[in-house]
Design brief:
Layout lengths: L1 H18 L1 H12 L9 H7 L3 E7 L2 E8 L4 E6 L10 H6 L5 E6 L14 H15 L4 E5 L1 H13 L5 E5 L5 H12 L3 H15 L8 H4 L7 E7 L8 H12 L3 E7 L9 H10 L5 H6 L1
Parallel strand pairs: 3-4, 3-5, 5-6, 6-7, 7-8
Antiparallel strand pairs: 1-2, 2-4
Helix pairs in contact: 1-2, 2-8, 5-6
């Protein structure tokens, strides 16, 4: 059924691009940027309700933020595409709430936040809104598009964190667009007009929206790059390239590769690696305490 739907969409956009290329590009873009928000499960809401919840306005939408702990060091957790802040439950439960204040947010169009579309700038504006409201953040821990958005935010704002932990990050916006083209079997013409519309929407060339560009200005004090070798959404070779770029920029960078966790990287070994990186007890040790 899904294949039939994708085929119909493909035929529609590829035909429309000959009749009205700008309309085709606009509609294709809004489909690309629509997160298809899912309803949170009761257990996800139960976890999120353990936080101090607050909302901030971002581009006319109320974005939902969460806070745990009251420590001097601050962490921001940033989820990926079509996810929400409940994905960080294992991290939040294990982190020392006396040492850290932990923040997270549901990106626009995700989780408990308002909004119908979401792009990298929406993530970045949500990060900026939190910084303006709560002050500085010491550590970024982010997954997938959230990780890409954190790097983009640091590049565009010049913001520097003590540590940047990147989980399963894509390498470039071109990669997103190429995957979208393949999934919908868009023609080269459709893809060209979509890419041009995207460039005009975000104000930056897709070629420049990449870690190759970000690494020229992104200067975290140190970085941990995590990726799974069997990730089907974005290749682990991206992690190697990002590691090499950061090292070339004289940033202390570590690479941790897993096997069998796929793109979501949900596993104790990932949580424990991040905890160790931050100088925290492991999951087992934190449970004993």
């Amino acid at each position: 059924m899904i294949k039939i739907i994708l085929k119909v969409i493909s035929v529609y956009f590829n035909a429309l691009t000959w009749l009205s290329p700008q309309l085709s590009a606009k509609q294709s873009f809004y489909l690309f940027a629509y997160p298809f928000k899912s309803i949170l499960l009761p257990e996800q809401q139960d976890f999120l309700s353990t936080s101090d919840m607050f909302q901030l306005e971002v581009d006319g939408n109320q974005v939902q933020y969460y806070a745990w702990g009251a420590g001097k060091e601050t962490i921001l957790l940033v989820h990926g595409w079509r996810s929400n802040s409940s994905q960080w439950d294992s991290f939040v439960e294990a982190l020392d709430k006396g040492r850290f204040t932990i923040y997270a947010f549901d990106a626009p169009g995700h989780g408990n936040s308002e909004g119908k579309i979401c792009t990298f700038p929406h993530y970045e504006k949500s990060i900026k809104a939190l910084l303006e409201e709560k002050g500085s953040i010491d550590h970024f821990i982010a997954h997938s598009i959230g990780s890409f958005a954190c790097a983009s935010f640091m590049y565009h704002s010049g913001y520097r964190v003590q540590s940047y932990v990147s989980l399963a990050s894509p390498f470039s916006a071109v990669e997103f667009m190429d995957n979208y083209k393949k999934r919908l079997t868009l023609s080269d013409r459709s893809h060209h007009y979509l890419s041009d519309f995207f460039k005009r929407y975000i104000g930056i060339s897709l070629d420049d929206y990449s870690h190759s560009t970000f690494s020229k200005k992104v200067k975290p004090c140190r970085s941990l790059i995590i990726h799974d070798k069997q990730d089907k959404a974005t290749s682990y070779h991206n992690a190697i390239k990002i590691r090499d770029l950061l090292k070339a920029a004289d940033i202390e960078t570590e690479l941790f590769l897993t096997e069998g966790l796929n793109h979501n990287l949900r596993g104790e070994e990932v949580v424990n690696r991040v905890l160790d990186y931050l100088g925290c007890p492991s999951l087992e040790e934190s449970l004993l305490n």
